[in-house]
Amino acid sequence: MVRMSFRERQPEPVGTISQTSYHExxxxxxxxxxxxxxxxxxxxxxxxxxxxxxxxxxxxxxPDRPGRTPNTPFAVNxxxxxxxxxxxxxxxxxxxxxxxxxxxxxxxxxxPAAAKLLQQHGMAASQFTAWGFGTELNDPKAGAExxxxxxxxxxxxxxxxxxxxxxxxxxxxxxxxxxxxxMHAAAAEKMKQVVPxxxxxxxxxxxxxxxxxxxxxxxxxxxxxxIAICKAVGSEWVKLNWDLFHMQRYExxxxxxxxxxxxxxxxxxxxxxxARNEPGTGEVNYxxxxxxxxxxxxxxPVGLECSPQDGDYVRAARRIHAADTW
Length: 326
Description:
The protein has helices spanning 19-25, 33-44, 46-49, 78-81, 86-96, 111-120, 145-160, 180-201, 222-233, 244-250, 254-261, 286-296, 313-323; strands at residues 74-77, 100-105, 124-132, 166-170, 204-207, 238-243, 265-270, 302-304. It is of the alpha/beta class and 326 residues long.
């Protein structure tokens, strides 16, 4: 059974990318006593849930393995789903049955220990954050030295992790006096400088566009501008982290836009809109989305960058399983 009780506090931020600021940017909910109680009640009632059936009438899996989904592989975001030490979060993802994890900054984490644990469970680390919200990437006057160093380090980190072939890059906020086109061009030029590094290590940068409701003042929104940056870089090693939560909030038309931009999809993430919880809690029909993803021929894990509603990660995993059952 999944262990439900968490007493540990969120680890303090360490490293070049501020874990605290990154969490603030992603508007993470706090774990409360109420949420812990809900999870405990979920554990206690697991036997009652074992007979639950999906809307399609098919039996769902045993309640401690809902991450074993029938059609789409998922990478659970251990930053948003769990609390406690990094290794414990990996254990919880494994107990839920997920085949992969994703995480944010690598600084302050014991990567060799995490890699060993993932290998023991036969899991992958689909991606992590190499560069988050630093404005110097989209500032034409700033040098590229720190960005180049971050990408070199990230290639080394990715090489240690099973199944990790990519990492996310997030541009910074608007810079006064510069147009979005100027900032995007500056970012593309710096990314061109690291393409030889990516080619050498066979690792991919995935650029993540944001949305203006959760990230006002950011310099990159939506698929069109993201694709334009990829085209400007002109490398198969630079694509998009196509986050369906941000895309829904900014532009909608999710399936058609995925089909039009599939050449530039390096990775997919999701959360339901507008509250950024798991599928089944918002306005998006994720069963249709998962069918479309399969039709596109996308076979990588889909990142679950969402917060379990009320902190109940067992229920969240079961909702995802139900949405992926047809």
